[in-house]
Amino acid sequence: MLISPAYAQGVGGAGTQEMLMSILPFVLIFVIMYFLIIRPQRQRMKQHQEMVANLRRGDTVVTAGGLIGKISKVVDETEVQIEVAEGMKVRTVRSMIQEVRSKTEPVKDNG
């Protein structure tokens, strides 16, 4: 016959350690990616959301499209009105504001 019989070779206990050593590089790569890519991106996203939530009238902002203007009106939670030139106002979505150049002081309550 051309087919030879197959016999079990080796003990079952050594296989788990080899499997652990083969998975370890993937775990290390994921941990490195988390600390170098995912975590800093989440922090930037959190800072941007906080900045957008704190927008108020009078702030000078830069939009994602590159327009620089002053917030003339906060329409609602999702939109603001920006004055880009004398008498020229543009409505934009809050999340498209990239940077706040100068903040206005909050209104003080006299009470």
Task: Describe the overall structure.
Strands 4-3-2-1-5 form a five-stranded antiparallel beta sheet. The longest helix has 40 residues, at 14-53. The chain has a domain at 55-102: SH3 type barrels (Roll), CATH 2.30.30. The chain has 111 residues and is of the alpha+beta class. The chain has one helix and five strands.
Question: What secondary-structure arrangement, pairings included, does this model have?
Answer:
Blueprint: H1 14-53, E1 60-63, E2 68-74, E3 79-85, E4 88-93, E5 97-102
Antiparallel strand pairs: 1-2, 1-5, 2-3, 3-4
Transmembrane segments: 20-38
Keywords: Cell membrane, Membrane, Protein transport, Translocation, Transmembrane, Transmembrane helix, Transport
Membrane topology: Single-pass membrane protein
